[in-house]
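fold description:
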Amino acid sequence: MSFDLVIENGIVITLNKNNEIIANGAVGIKASSIAAVGKTGEVDKAGAAKVLDAKGGIIMPGFVNAHTHAAMTLFRGLADDLPLMDWLNNHIFPAEATLNRNMVYAGTMLACAEMILSGTTCFCDMYLFEDAVAQAADDAQMRAVVGEVLYDFPSPNYGPIEKGFEFTEMLLEKYKAHPRVSIAVEPHSPYLCAPAILQKSADLAQKWNAPVIIHVSETKAEVAQMLEKYGKTPVAHLADLGFLSPRVVADHCVVLTDDDINLLAKNSVKVAINPESNMKLASGTAPVKELMAAGVCVALGTDGCASNNDLDMIGEMDTAAKVHKVVTEDPTVMKAQTALELATINGARALGMESLIGSIEKGKLADIIVVDTAKPHLTPMYNPVSHLVYAARGSDVAHSVIHGRLVMENRQLLFLDVEKAMADVRQLARIIRP
């Protein structure tokens, strides 16, 4: 077989079910898929359209950012060091009221540049004007799961909630056969969505076999509000509505009871934690140890740049591993291997894409990155997985392949003008904060 692309001379971290690591390994890519995985020399590069030398670096699956708001690059640093509800209600929601489709497109293009440059190949997005997010992801050659945020009050995009469901269904129809962009149904949260909205969201997702993305139990104040209004925790409220299912990705899940965890596990709900955002907003830390012990699939996200303030999944892995060691006072919690799985194969599982991405295996789609390890801060390297989590940086990613196509080579973006993306957002920042 003649490959379209061969990546060779690297340490292949497969993230397959056996967590196989191949020293001096190679990957052969044909069209959009991984066609061969093995030792360098065993993967025949003769006749390959292109050969990429990893130079002893790490060849691994691209990162899956399981929860973000990409266009919030527009608000990076706009309202820092505030409590969540103050930040959201008094700063972010008013700023978002000024948004339009072109602004969201520009913010998302900048986010795509940042994500590709730091090794993310797939992201799950919730925001406004998500048709612009889908278009930006497509133009940047990224893989994305996107969905228009739905809530009780009128949206600056679609207006009343009835139009929000129409807009979501339009996106579902438009992207139903797209190779890289897919659509989710995304009610914001139990506290900003009436029961009827939540139930209609679940029904729409079931109709289209689509994921459902929702913020759940992010703060103590949110949980207290739900207890006062409904006499139930957010998770119990969703369970009683029949909302919980294996297609649901619950974002944050910081404030959970034991019963909540059991309900999430019983319904095979996936959880996307966002440790840096939750730390910055002082919301708390998700009970990851307990969630995983209950059998819940936990994935990793960055949240948006207004509350993080970056989209670097390598930095997020490092934070996730360390903060959970601190809160449990147990250095064996969230080992490097676990953190890496949260950022790759578990992200794919959360989005229902584990048969397609998240690991390097023959037949899967070729979403692959190469990490340059010829750096002082990565020398010596006894354990490549440990180095990825505790020592590497997003800027160490040298090459990125998405859907079999090389989108970054030697840190040069091949389908995205990063200088234009930065200039566009700088100009918009003068409008957002005159």
Remarks:
- DSSP finds 15 helices and 18 strands in the chain.
- The chain has a mean pLDDT of 97.
- The first helix runs from residue 84 to 96.
- The CA atoms of residues 381 and 387 lie 7 Å apart.
